[in-house]
Amino acid sequence: MSRLDMRGVPLGPIPARAGIGLRFVHHEALLEERPAVGWIEAHTENYFHDGAAPRALERARANYPLSLHGVGLDSDPPTASTPRTSRASSAP
Fold first, then answer.
1. How far apart, in whole angstroms, are the C-alpha atoms of residue 73 and residue 76?
2. Of 47, 55, 66, 89, which is the most buried if we count CB atoms within 10 A?
């Protein structure tokens, strides 16, 4: 067993614990309550815009391992010049 942080989450590799899908309605609770979940998953497209959601994701990833899941990125040809692809490459 590895060392634990103040929430009881192991430090180091992503723990073999359940993660959660991060949705906008969960941001405040996740940041304030900091539940002992193993990791968070977010749909990349939900964070392409400026505003509160990308800032909340930045704050959340400071406390949890993050998995980005692109659900609509394959609708454009896979080139680095498409707006979606370039925005995803600069996502938090």
1. 7
2. 47
Of 69, 71, 40, the C-alpha closest to 56 is 40
CB 60 within 8 A of CB 88: no
| Residue 64 buriedness (CB in 10 A; 0-12 / 13-18 / 19+) | buried
Whole-number Cα distances in Å, 48 to 19, 36, 77, 84: 22, 27, 18, 8
Cα dihedral: 87, 88, 90, 92 (round 10): 130
Burial of 89 (0-12, 13-18, 19+ CB in 10 A): exposed
Whether pLDDT at 88 is above 70: no
**Phi, psi for 43 (deg, rounded to 5):** -75, 120
Q: pTM value? A: 0.59
